[in-house]
Amino acid sequence: MTLSELPLHASAKVEDVQDLHPNDAIARRLRELGFVNGEEVRLVARGPVGGEPLLFQVGFTRFALRRSEAARVRVRTEGVSA
Amino acid sequence: MSGAVARLALVGNPNSGKTALFNQLTGSRQKVANYTGVTVERKEGRMRGPSGREYAVLDLPGAYSLHPASLDEAITRDLCRGFYPGEAAPDALICVIDATNLRLHLRFALEVRELGKPMIVALNMVDAARRRGIEIDVPALEKALGVPVVETVAVQRNGAKALVERIDGLVPQLASQPLQQPVEAGEHHAQVRAILEAAVRMPSRTGKIDDTLDRWLLHPVYGLLTLAVVMFLIFQAVYAWATPLMDGIEAGFGWLGEFAAAKLPEGPLSSLLVDGIIAGVGGVIVFLPQILILFFFILALEESGYLPRAAFLLDRMMASAGLSGRSFIPLLSSFACAVPGIMSTRSIQDPRDRLATILVAPLMTCSARLPVYALLIGAFIPAKTVWGVFNQQGLVLFALYVAGILSALMMSWTMKKFRRDKSEHPLMLELPSYRLPNPRDLAVGLYERAMIFLKRVGGIILALTILLWFLLSFPGAPENATMPAIDYSFAGQIGHAMAVIFAPLGFNWQICIALIPGMGAREVAVSSLATIYALSAADDDAAIQALTPVISDGWTLATGLSLMVWFIYAPMCISTLATIRRETNSWKQMAFATVYLFAAAYLAALVTYQVAKALGAG
C-alpha cells in the first residue's frame, strides 16, 4: 500500500519512494526528508477539508503532504507496533 | 584566506534556529537586502571575536538539501559552492543543526560536508534536547563527523559564546575537508543512523507537548475555531488598534504642514514643501502602525510554529483557487490595507503562489475604500429594511466586499489555468515543534520590516506623491478664475480629456478629475470631489455630509452604482503599486497588475452603468 492509504493514527514502515517520472524532484525530496526504507511513519492528522493535506510523523519531524505526494511512498504495515 | 575579513556563512535546515543564532552572533549589526535580481532576502552582519578579529557573517536561506527545490535553496547551494555571481565564496561554513531533530538535520550536514569547505557544526537548541531526555556525546559526534561540533542555545544570552570563541580560534587555520564523492540520499540516511547509534541516546517518543497541541490545533472543528479566533484578533488589531496611531500621525503631519505654511511666504516653494514633501512623507509613515502590528503577529506566529499549522488547515481550500494555505494571512490583512498585506507574502515559499497572492491582494476591500463607499451608498441607496432584518445600505456594502473576494478567487484561478509552468506544486510543509517566540528575534524582525518599508517603498511613494502634487498645482489658476484651481491644472486638463473615455461608464468630468488625486489614496477622491464642487469641508466626514445632496441630485443612480463597482477593482493607490513593484522586483508585474485591475474596473463599471441605464436607473 502507499502512504496516502494509511488510516488515521496508524503507523507503517517505509519500503521506498517511487519516481512518477524520470528525475522526479518530489520523490527525491521525500527521500531526503527521511522517507527511506525501514523508517517508521505515522499519520498524525488530516486536513479539515477533503481529508487533505496529510500530516506524517517521520523520525522527529512532522511533514504535511498532499495526497499525490504521499502516494509516491510505498509502505508495509506488517511487523509495526501500533 | 581571502581579504582581511574572514567570511562565514550560516547554513542549515529551515527551523534549525539559524536566524536566531545569526541575531545572537551579529547583534544589531546586520544589513538586510535582496540577492541581485531576485526577491530572496540576503542578510549579512558583522561579528568580532575575542581576539579582536572581524568576521562577515552571511545568513543563507534555509535548505533541506543541496539539490534545490526552490529559488532559496538554489541560492544556498550556489553560495556554499562559491558559484553565486557577485558573491565571494565563504571562507568557512557554520552548519546549524537542531539537537532535537538530528535525524533530518545531520543528513544535510553530511551533504554540506561533501562540499569540502572548512566547516563547524553548531549543535543548536541543546537546552530543549536535554529537557526531552536526548543525550548527545559531543566528542563522539565530532569524531563521527570529522568536523568541530559546538553546542549553542541561540535564544539565550551568551548562548553562542562558545561558538564565537571556537570560530575565532579555529577559522584562521581551518583545513578544508577532503572532497567526497556525493552519495545517494539513502546512503546519507544510513550514515546518519550509524552516527546516531554512536553518539546519541534518545527516548523513543518525544514531543508530548507537540502531540497534545496538534491534537487540538489541527482538529477539524476546534482547530478551525482556534484559527478563526486568531485571524479575528489579527484583523481587529490591524484594523482597529492601528487607527488611533494613524490618526495621530496624520494630525501630526497636518500640524507640521500648517506650521510650515504659516512660516514660509506663499508660493510654489511653500506649496511643494507643504502639499508635496510633508504630505508625501506623512503618507509614507502613516502605514507604519499597520505594518508593525501585522508583522508582530506574523513573526510571533511563525516563530511559535503556528503559522505552518494555519497553512495546513487552509491549504486545500486555498489550493483549489490557485493559491496556497500561506496566502490567507496576507489576503486577510489586505482588508485593512494592501501594503502590509503584500509585504507579508514573504512567508509564502512557492514563488508562483506568492506572485498570485500579490496580484489579487489589491482586490480585498481595504479601509481606504470605506469613505468612498460611505459617500456613494449614503447618496444613492435608500436606508430601508429588506427581508425584515437587513439594512439595505449594509447589504450593498457587504455585496461590495463579497464582489472583491469572488473576483480575487476568479483571478487567481484564471492565472493558475494560464500559467505556463504546469508542474506539480508540492506542499511538503514541515510543521516544526512549538516554541515560545523570543522577544529579541521579534524586535529584530520588526525593525527589519520597518526599514525595508521606509527605505525601499517609501522612496517610490514619496516621488509619486510629489509628481501628483505637480500635476495638481500647475499651471495655477488665472487671475479672473471662476472655477476651483484644480480645474486649470494639468490634472484638471487630464480629467477633462478622460471624460470622453469614461462617458460610457457614466462618469462626468468632475468624477474624472477627482480620480487623479484619488491615485494618491482612494479616500482623497472624496475630499477632491468636494473641492471640485467648490464646497468647503474640514474633513472627510464633513465632505461626505456636504457632498451627499449635491451628487444624489446631480448624478444618476446608474452613475453611482458604476462608480462603486469601479472602486472594487481600480488600483487607485500608488502605494500599493509601489509595494508590488518592490516585492516582485519587477516593473512588468506591476504594470500587469495595474493594467488588469484598470481593465477589470472599466469593464465591470461599463456593464454596471449600461445595465442600470437599460433598467431605467439612468
From TrEMBL, chain A:
Name of the protein in its database record: FeoA family protein
The family database entries (Pfam families) matched by this protein are listed as: FeoA
Taxonomy of origin reads: Bacteria, Pseudomonadati, Pseudomonadota, Gammaproteobacteria, Lysobacterales
Tell me the first and last residues of the signal peptide. none
Q: Which residues form the Ferrous iron transporter FeoA-like domain?
A: 1-77
Task: Report if keyword Iron is assigned.
Answer: yes
SMART domains registered for this protein in UniProt: FeoA
Q: Which PANTHER family does its entry note?
A: FE(2+) TRANSPORT PROTEIN A
Question: Has the keyword Ion transport been applied to this entry?
Answer: no
SUPFAM superfamilies, A to Z: C-terminal domain of transcriptional repressors
Q: Which UniProt keywords apply?
A: Iron
**Do you know which InterPro entries this protein is assigned to?**
Fe-transptr_FeoA-like, FeoA, FeoA_core_dom, Transcriptional_repressor_C
Q: Which Gene3D superfamilies match?
A: 2.30.30.90
From TrEMBL, chain B:
User: Is Ribosomal protein tagged as a keyword?
Assistant: no
In terms of one coarse class, where is the protein primarily found?
Answer: membrane
Gene3D superfamilies the UniProt entry points to: P-loop containing nucleotide triphosphate hydrolases (3.40.50.300)
Q: How does it sit in the membrane?
A: Multi-pass membrane protein
Sorted UniProt keywords: Cell membrane, GTP-binding, Ion transport, Iron, Iron transport, Membrane, Nucleotide-binding, Transmembrane, Transmembrane helix, Transport
Instruction: Tell me where in this chain the FeoB-type G domain is found.
Output: 5-173
The residues that cross the membrane are 221-242, 272-301, 355-381, 393-413, 457-476, 488-507, 514-535, 555-578, 590-612
Location in the cell: Cell inner membrane; Cell membrane
Q: Which family does it belong to?
A: Belongs to the TRAFAC class TrmE-Era-EngA-EngB-Septin-like GTPase superfamily. FeoB GTPase (TC 9.A.8) family.
State what this protein does: Probable transporter of a GTP-driven Fe(2+) uptake system.
User: What is the name listed in the Swiss-Prot or TrEMBL entry for this protein?
Assistant: Ferrous iron transport protein B
Q: Give the species this sequence originates from.
A: Stenotrophomonas capsici
UniProt lists the gene as: feoB
